[in-house]
# Entry
Amino acid sequence: MRKGFSLLTAIVFLVLIATIAALSISLSTQSAKQTGDVKLKSQAELLLRSGTEYALLAISGAPNGCLKQVNMTYDSMFDINASIMYIGNGLSDPNCIQLGSDINTSESNRTVIIDTVVTTKEGIITEPIRLHRRTIQKP
# Structure
């Protein structure tokens, strides 16, 4: 009877140790994945700001002063898309996306709304990152 009880205690102890080992391995791989995801998310946030600034630069360098969209790719990992809409009257290109022309002050004329979206490309990470930023700027 004593040998059977000792054997049963040893089996329970081995199962308990194996469970704790499997849990620790699972948690360590999960934290490594989270570290990589945090790095990519921080990089995407920086690209979001840079994409907006680049869209402003592209607007100022456009020949007719009107752009609808600016598309970029960074390091074959991120797609950056900036959609541009204008508020104001007297825009030089009728194809511009114009949200409103009822402007009271001349300082507010030709204001732009920039929607910037940063997404990871397919196959980079298991849970894709997609960030959106909307800004109102005066180019």
Notes: The CA atoms of residues 56 and 109 lie 16 Å apart. DSSP finds one helix and five strands in the chain. The first helix runs from residue 2 to 61.
